[in-house]
Amino acid sequence: MAVMEPRGREVDQLDAVVPLAGDTPVSRTSRPVFTTGRHVGPGSAEPDSLMRRYQRQALAGDFLASLAAGGLAAVARFGAPGAAYLVLTLSLPLLWVTIIAAQRGYERRFLGTGPEEYRRILQAGLVMFCVIAVVSYALRSEVARGYVFLAIPATLLLTLLSRRRLRTWIYRLRERGLALQRVLVVGRADVVVSVIEKLDREPQHGLVPVGACVPFVGVEVSHVHDVPVVGDPGRVLEAVADTGAHVVAVVSHPDLSGQALRRLSWALEERGVELIVSPGIIEVAGPRLSIRPVAGLSLLHLERPVASGGRMLGKMVFDRVGGILLTAAAAPVLLAVALGVRLTSRGPVFYRQVRVGAGGREFTMFKFRSMVVDADHRRAALMAISDGNGVLFKLRKDPRVTRFGGVLRRFSLDELPQLLNVVRGDMSLVGPRPPLPEEVAGYTADAARRLKVKPGLTGLWQVSGRSDLNWEESLRLDLRYTDNWSIALDVSILWRTLRAVVKGSGAY
């Protein structure tokens, strides 16, 4: 939890020892030194210039992606396209970047982090399809459907790949401590610690805490979770000057609300410093949040998680169709693995186990058998040496795993038969980890919320460390998915799963 130390230490004993300048990296253990009345630290040029470069490259990449997609579609559809389709192909990139801009796809707050950048690209693709259809109808000049159905998906795909390349570039810079915005966190110490922990845990968002303003109750402190305390919430502007902060994050402080927060926003605006306010709501995706202005107040509206209706029907169709297609595509692998299990150890090819699905309903889950036949009976004797996370039983070197089973587990091939559970409707392609009945029996009220959606063949737990996660982290990821699932998130997780399986990280 919080590391709150007495303020009596000298400045040269603080964790931050070297101020940043120019391209000097920012890191968790390299914070600016603070002394009263002295400004130490660089200006804001570096992250600003790099993000402007990101914007320019994003626009250029989108333009070239549409130009390439239109050219490929024209050649594939017509071989030698006529003048009309040549003009259309050259016009598509301008239309594409204009639509993305109208969807606010080049705003810096959406670039380089989170799913919103990709979501706006997908929305732009739908808008472009509609625009072409409407213009074609209005001009009574029907555009060849083959051209449209090639050009738009190819534009989307190439654009997403281009943005992914940019993400990789900016992530690598941030891992080196570059392109980071310095953040001053203001609020109660316990909440400030929580925010700092999250920002330090996920540096890809480009925010690094460099100072904290917390109220002093009884005893002053010098550090909060390894971040220097540079004052109380009453001296935010002085702390901004001391730290060279690009962003002020206000979290749960009653004295910084209403008119006081408004005045602070004006003062920060004059200094070119961003203001972000945490409402105290955790693990809620952006699409579920909206601002509802009422009587001059900006009220934060929180949409309820989707548990029924059209979107849930869409997920069911996505799961069933995707399950059938993946089963058909994986049929040769399924047959090869089944033959390998049969030839390398005695016992059945499949391992059947009762798991708990949505609403607490039990079902039989299928896996390729990767252990000896009497593995369940030998589990009790191994409980004392479990490498699990306190709730789940796991062993890094489980003596019950067969040699061939070890290979299957390394690449998650033993889980492929769960595609049959997806096709049957017991599971989803993406969802929380399917729990055992004895695990569910010990669930708290929070953990029981995992059962509001179907368990998944993969999920956030699969792409975030798998067996290396502790129980609290696994539960947090499952609850995040339960409350914020979407088809776009499912597609993203499926793509990340492929990479996690190839690397074999956290699998044993």
UniProtKB/TrEMBL annotation:
Gene3D superfamilies: NAD(P)-binding Rossmann-like Domain. Keywords: Membrane, Transferase, Transmembrane, Transmembrane helix. It holds the Pfam family CoA_binding_3. It is found in: Membrane. Its main location: membrane. InterPro entries: Bact_transf, EPS_sugar_tfrase. GO terms for molecular function: transferase activity. Residues 315-503 form the Bacterial sugar transferase domain. Residues 27-47 are annotated as: Disordered. The chain crosses the membrane at residues 58-76, 82-101, 121-139, 145-162, 321-341. It is a multi-pass membrane protein. Belongs to the bacterial sugar transferase family. This is Sugar transferase.
